[in-house]
Design a protein that fits this description.
The chain is mainly beta. It contains six helices and 16 strands. Strands 1-2-3-4-5-6-7-8-9-10-11-12-13-14-15-16 form a 16-stranded antiparallel beta barrel, surrounded by five helices. Strand 4 and strand 5 form a beta hairpin. The termini are far apart. 48% of the residues are buried.
């Protein structure tokens, strides 16, 4: 399949054209892990000073600490069988304009520090460093990157919330191919069950860009974005040079259906087209660009049960998988109102460039994950998970089990 390079130019034109329309109820475009939705998810009774900031100054703040530990039954020969890391996050949103008419505009930010506890961090545990020999990523957000700027952008709503625009330092996983269980902080840990299903060549988080979401009707919507393909979240100041001088772009266009505006990332069907220019740090083996299309469908068949199917196909030298298919289910409110369980299986075909580089003869991998997210009081979440990986592509072992434990402390 071939996708036109012209998407980089018309994306900006369409984004501006969509800023007109009839007013409807307000909607937040974005994944469960956007700053706005993360703050809303923290429903515990807030301290008085936070209430005062929110009510008097329209300023909301959040601070949490995350930790993830992994242990494998059968690492590849000579590889590590365990990995652990932590992440400190400080985030907030400050609405400054449009407070009376619903067309709010304000500043959104998220600052992080990512650090490892073991010789190998979870992001590198799969195949970047000797570990599982599995071409994929488990806990890609848990690295040893250090300090980073993940978000610093202006978010503006138009038409009573029918249109939303974000411009500045963006995390593309906040608006690309999102669904309810995609967050690496509260949902699945394996990238195969998160944004892109391993079949999207994602750039770094915290890169300069523009994203626009628009409700075409009560049920149909579109989201498009253009971002700096060479940007780095640990060197945000360099983004102006890479964006305006190198012109290596990550462009996306998504068309979707949702049962209602309030359920845009739960009861949802969408198709996402993407393109990442070559010659960036995200190339797997060479300098070739990458492109592809992804599909996602999720729906609450009961008040608690949400089955989903997701997948994608790609070509080029940036996505881990040329083909990926995920089937799964989420169960919300299991044993307690805020607790959730997720189970999914994934079938993937490894990118041919990677297969040739590593001498892989069988490119097919099978992965499954089961997790249970528990809220222990108001401040602590604990998420045990177990994964089974069959035929990890570059491992000396035929399969492996991976046990994981994730902790979140909300301050």
């Amino acid at each position: 399949m071939k996708f036109s390079e012209g998407c980089k130019s018309w994306a900006l034109v369409v984004a501006m054209a969509m800023c007109s329309g009839q007013a409807v109820a307000e909607i937040n475009f974005g994944s469960p892990d956007t700053v706005d939705n993360t703050i809303k998810d923290n429903t515990r009774e807030k301290q008085s000073w936070r209430e005062a900031l929110a009510s008097e100054h329209h300023l909301t703040l959040g601070l949490d600490y995350q930790a993830l530990g992994l242990s494998a039954s059968s690492a590849t020969d000579g590889g590590d069988d365990s990995a652990a890391a932590g992440v400190m996050r400080f985030y907030g949103a400050w609405n400054l304009v449009g407070l009376d008419d619903g067309n709010t505009g304000g500043l959104v930010w998220k600052i992080e520090h990512r650090h490892k506890y073991t010789d190998v961090d979870p992001k590198s545990f799969s195949f970047i460093e000797p570990g599982l020999g599995y071409i994929g990523m488990i806990g890609p957000a848990y690295s040893d990157q250090g300090s980073r700027l993940t978000n610093l952008y202006w978010k503006q709503k138009f038409n009573g919330g029918k249109t939303s625009m974000m411009v500045g330092y963006l995390d593309t996983t906040d608006y690309v191919d999102t669904y309810a269980l995609a967050s690496p902080w509260t949902g699945f840990t394996n990238l195969a069950f998160s944004t892109g299903a391993g079949a999207i060549g994602l750039p770094d988080d915290g890169i300069l860009g523009l994203a626009v979401g628009h409700m075409l009707s009560d049920n149909f919507y579109t989201v498009l974005g253009v971002a700096d393909g060479k940007g780095r979240s640990d060197k945000p100041a360099d983004g102006f040079e890479t964006l305006f001088n190198d012109h290596k772009l990550f462009t996306t266009f998504e068309l979707g259906w949702t049962a209602s505006q309030e359920q845009i990332y739960t009861d949802n069907v969408h198709v996402t087209f993407w393109h990442l220019d070559g010659g960036t740090q995200h190339n797997l083996t060479g300098t070739e660009s990458g492109r592809g299309v992804n599909f996602s469908a999720s729906y609450f068949v009961t008040q608690q049960l949400m089955p989903f199917v997701r997948g994608g196909i790609s070509e080029g030298d940036v996505a881990l998988y040329e083909k990926s298919l995920t089937l799964g289910v989420g169960y919300f409110g299991l044993l307690a109102a805020k607790n959730s369980l997720g189970f999914a299986i994934n079938f993937s075909e490894v990118n041919d460039n990677l297969a040739q580089a590593y001498g892989v003869t069988d490119k097919n991998q099978f992965t499954s994950e089961l997790y249970y997210n528990m809220h222990l009081g108001e401040f602590i979440q604990l998420t045990p998970n177990i994964q089974y990986i069959d035929n990890p592509a570059i491992s000396t072992e035929k399969d492996t089990w991976v046990l994981g434990l994730r902790m979140r402390f909300v301050l």
